[in-house]
Input
Amino acid sequence: MKLLLLTNGYGEDTIAKYIIDNLYELGVKDIEVFPLVTKGDVFENVKIVGPVRVFPSSGISGFLNFFNFIKDIKAGLFGHIKQQIKFLKSLNDDLYFVAVGDVYPILLLYFSGKIRKSFFVATAKSIKTEPFNFLEISLMKNMIANFVRDEMTLKWIVSRYGLGNVYFEGNPVLDLPRVEVDDEKFLNVLKYYKNIIILPGRKDVAVENLRNLIAFVPHLIEKGFCFTVVVPHFYPLDEIVRLVKEFENVFIFDSKYYRFLLENSFLVWGFGGSANEQAAGFGLPVISLYSKSWYRQRQKKLLRDSLILVRNWEEFYTQTMSLVNDVNRYVYLSNVGRREMGNLGGARNIARFIQNFCQ
Output
C-alpha cells in the first residue's frame, strides 16, 4: 500500500501531518507528500516529492487577490501547474492519492487521470461558510471517498446531490499531537497566572504583529497573566526573542507544544488559520484583528461568536479584561467554539478508513 498526499496550503499541510501520524500508528509506512503551494516545512520525517515552489501569493487563496494573481502569473504559475500535472501523470498505477484542501488538488488529479484512485479531505468548504459548487460536486463523484468537516455539510450534500461516497468522520484539524512542556519555570508560572497564547501569524508578518501586541503585555502581567508566543521552528526566532526577552512572564514555544498550551490556557490572541480554529475547538475564545479579507470573514462565519474581531490593537487589552470580568460571556464563547468545531478523532478515523480500503 503506497500513498501520496497532496496539500495546498499551510493549514492543509498540518492536517495532512495529523493523518500521516495516524497512518504510521496503524502500520502504513509507505507515504510521500506533494506540497502544491508550500515547501512542506512541517513534514520533518516524510519524503517530499514533486515540483515544489512557493509563489508570491503564498498559496492558491492568493488567486482571490487580483494583484497577487498577476504576480504569480509573471513568476511562471501556469508553467508550474503543467509541471505538477506532468509529475502526477508519471507516477505508477499502484499509488493511492489523498487530496487535502480545496478543489485545486482534485483538479490536478482529474487532469492527470488519477482521480478514481483518490480520497478527498475537504478542509475549505462547509455549508456554514460556503457550500460546495457544481464543479466540486462533479469531481467528488469520481473520488473513492470524500471527508467533509462537519455533519451539517454531509447532510446537505446527501440530500441535495445524493452522493454516497461522502462521509463525516470528525474534524481532523483538532487532532493535534500532545507534547508536554518540560520548562519548569513556565510550569511554575502557570500555577499562578492565566496564560494567553499569542499566534503572531504568517512568517512574513509575525514580527510586526507581535510588535503591536507586546505593548499591552506589561499591563496584563500586572493583572495576573502570562504569555506564550507559539511559532513553528522555521520562523525568525532571533527577532521574536529580541522583542520579548525583557518580559519576565513571556515564553516562546515551538508549535509542537500547541495542544498542551491549549489545554492549559485562558485565551488566544490569534492571527492563525487552522490554529485559530483549533483554539476555538478546545474551548478558548480567540481575539483577532478585523479584516475585510475573504479568509478572516470566512473564519468568522465558521467560528461565529468564539472569534472576536477587533478594530484596533487596544481592543486586544479591553476585550481580554471584558472576558476576565464576565464569566458568563467567557463560558458562552467557549461553548460556541466547541460546538462549531465538533469532536476530536477525525484524523484517526480518516486514516483507518483509508487503511481499510487500500489493504
User: Anything to note?
Assistant: DSSP finds 16 helices and 13 strands in the chain. The radius of gyration is 21 Å. The chain has a mean pLDDT of 92.
